[in-house]
Amino acid sequence: MHFAATRQRRLAAAVATALAVTFGSGILAAPAASGADGTPVVGSAPTELVEATPTRVPTGTIDLDTTSALEFAFDVDGPGARVEFSLRNTRTGNAVTWIRELSGGRFPVGFVWDGTFSIPDPDGVYTTHAATTGTYAWTVTASPLSGDGPGLRTSGTFATTRTPRDHDLDADGVFDLLAVTGEGRLTAEGSYRGNAGYSDFWGARGWDAFDRLEVAGDVAGTPHSDLVARDRGGVLWLYRSNGGRTHEYLEPRSRVGGGWQVYRHLAGGSDLTADGRPDLVAADASGVLWLYEATGRTTAPFAPRERIGGGWQAYNQITAVGNVAGGPGGDLVARDKNGVLWLYLGKGDGTFTARERLGGGFQRYSELVGGGDWDGDGRNDLLAVEPATDTVFAFEGTGRRDEPLDLTRKATLLFKGVEHDIYA
Questions:
Q1: Under the phi-then-psi rule, with left for phi > 0, alpha for psi from -120 to 50, and beta for the rest, what region is 325?
Q2: I need a labelling partner for 258 at 20 to 30 A (CA). Which of 119, 234, 335, 376 fits?
Q3: How far apart are CA 299 and CA 380, in angstroms?
Q4: How do 410-411 and 391-395 pair as beta strands?
Q5: By the 8 A CB rule, do 196 and 411 touch?
Q6: CA neighbor of 177 nearest in space, from 317, 382, 4, 322
Q7: Which 3-state string (H, E, C) describes 72-120?
Q8: DSSP 186-221
């Protein structure tokens, strides 16, 4: 499959408190042209020059999870200068630019980047999203304010990294909600700290061939969140994520196996066996729940199924939410025909404690999605799609045994006002 190239965007910058990082050095200057005897050549380039010396710039690899801001500092010397600093992700094209106009003399000038970009939507409203991992190139251009000299440049690069997170498809450390449009295109929107966000993940058409899609977590050792998709013939396919290493965020699909049409429900993303890998569960038409334990292998991502319970025909939705109640394993939530939501607390051995009632009124939602941290507080949440208002609501995870989900719903801006066929 092929993903569309990242679009060029007009971006704005946010400024945060400076944090000292590894220092580098360099010079931005050029001598005036001269003859053999050292005298200026008539008609040569103007002699009014601006010098900018980098005194603090990041080098090597920066961990964006632990670094809140990057500082870039330069000593500028000249008769008055226009200094333009730009920073760009070499893969996605996301960029930010600052401009300073300085009076004559020698003094320091600094730029601070907080690891985010601001991107306008089609209505011109800017939303903030976190920077992805990758290589970043910075450039400084300095020109005399008088216009009597050339624009002189210096540049450099550094790399960034982030710890892979559940439900993060573009390696920016932020929850991504996937959806399949009516045209069969796979798309995503991110949620930066629970606010409006943006995702660099962008998929091709053809996903209407599937009737079920799950963000299953790292089941094949990538270590990023993988997808499983069931086609209308009952074949289950694995799409391994490469975390945005290339423009194609997903590797070519591999066949898991056939016969999956016997299952009414699939739910992936909870580590039910406490081995550090998320597992997949499936409920068949007779109500038997089956566990497919993740192996971490690409060629065989799931072990042979194991029967772990019965009576699940009472539910019309089953969702893996990760560990929301502080137990030894991942959890499941299930909705019955009356709209009541039930918690199944994972015991860490592939089984669950007796179900517990969470609350009612969930019949209004067409889709429940779990397994990711929507608001960036370190705890997994539950999302619910309300078709009557085309709104995705969030129920925040608490991590507490007595009240694992805060049932005071919060409206999100994910796919606001848009209806899609499948959410994951």
A1: alpha
A2: 335
A3: 29
A4: antiparallel
A5: no
A6: 382
A7: EEEEEEEEEEEEEEEEEECCCCCEEEEEEEEEEEEEEEEEEECCEEEEE
A8: EEEEEEGGGSS-----B--S-GGGEEEEEEEESSSS
Query: Which residues have C-beta within 8 Å of that of residue 127, sequence separation ≥ 6?
Result: 118, 119, 120, 121, 192, 195, 196, 197, 198, 413
The three-class DSSP label of residue 34 is: strand
Q: How far apart are CA 351 and CA 51, in angstroms?
A: 68
Q: Round to whole Å and give the CA distance between 323 and 404.
A: 9
- Token readout for 150 is 């050339």
- Total-model pTM: 0.82
Tokens 């580590």 — which residue? 271
In tens, the pLDDT along 172-211 reads 888 999 999 999 999 999 888 777 667 888 777 899 999 9
Q: Is residue 47 scored above 90 in pLDDT?
A: no
Report the DSSP pairing between strands 126-130 and 116-120. Answer: antiparallel
Residue 19's pLDDT band, with cuts at 50, 70 and 90, is very low
Q: Would you state the structure tokens that stand for residue 387, as one six-digit string?
A: 């078709």
Max CA-CA distance within the chain? 96
β-sheet bridge partners, residue 320: 332
Is residue 45 exposed (0-12), middle (13-18) or buried (19+ Cβ within 10 Å)?
Answer: middle
pLDDT at 8 over 80: no
Quickly list DSSP for 332-392: EEEEETTS-EEEE-B-SSS-BPPPEEEES-GGG-SEEEEEE-SSSSSS-EEEEEETTTTEE
**What mean pLDDT comes out for the span 319-340?**
95
Q: 68 — alpha (psi -120 to 50), left (phi > 0) or beta?
A: alpha
Q: Which residues pair with 156 in a beta bridge?
A: 138
pLDDT in tens, 334-388: 999 999 999 999 999 999 999 999 999 999 999 999 989 999 899 999 999 999 9
The overall average pLDDT reported for the chain is 85
Residue 105 in this model has a pLDDT that exceeds 70: yes
Residue 240 in this model has a pLDDT that exceeds 60: yes
Please report, in angstroms and rounded to a whole number, the separation of the first and last CA atoms in the chain. 19
Residues 6+ apart with CB under 8 A from 295: 219, 277, 301, 302, 303
The Cα–Cα gap between 421 and 419 comes to 7
DSSP 214-253: EEEESSSSSSSPEEEEEETTS-EEEE-B-TTSSS--BPPP
Q: What is the pLDDT of residue 197?
A: 67
Higher pLDDT, 275 or 38: 275
Dihedral over Cα of 126, 128, 134, 140: its sign: positive
